[in-house]
Amino acid sequence: MLNRKGPSRRAVWVATGALVVIVIAIAALSQGHSSPESGSRGVSASNRQGAPAAPAQNGGVPLVPTGSTLLATLRDTTPSYSAPGGPSNALVPASWHGAPTILPVIESRQGYVEVRLAQRPNESTTWLKASSVTFTTTPFRIVVNLAKTHLYVYDHNRQVLAAPAGVGTALAPTPTGRYFVAFFAQPPDPGYGPFVMVTSAHSNAITDWDDSGDAMVAIHGPLGEGARIGTTGAALSHGCIRLQLADQILLRIVPAGSPIDIVAS
Fold it and tell me: Is there a single domain that holds both residue 39 and residue 159?
């Protein structure tokens, strides 16, 4: 679980399933979301930021092939709206914890797009003007099934990975809902694997870990619990999702903004 004070904080705190808090320098974090450690299965940063979208056709919003999700990358801090054509009610930052803001689009109307947000409360959404963002697409979708303790990856709606996962316990469950890949961080130690995939989900059981101001759910390596995860998965974390290293490496290709559905069964 990742815990954050806010965009101005000079260090971020990572709470593991064993409740260990580790400081990661912001400079390392900034490198992590764009270029994780290299490996034979790695992909370039441009691929991880999504593929270019088709030319805009629907009020400035591109058409998206079946099985793909449209992503909106903010160019600058952008006004948000409660409804298309209404008054602006807030601002969405162009970056979050040093990473570009890349948000999945869930609806479009009248030159506006409705997007999911990375900040609390969980599953928050807002509307943005289509002219204020750059569009890309992702064919990938992640599903975490808590009852089956498995993580699944889909490419154009075709399942390409089914991996046993360590998920939250009854006292600190992994929150169900519709989320997305918020950004990538460098791992603080080898137990996390080659990268940390930070999601837009936030723990409902831990709202403020060690005065850090947040408790963000992440997908990472087993942290020494590979035997317990085994081939069936297990409930063993404080909300984060742990994978065997061989399975985690396969997630390199999934870009920021890709949808993540966490389901109870």
Answer: yes
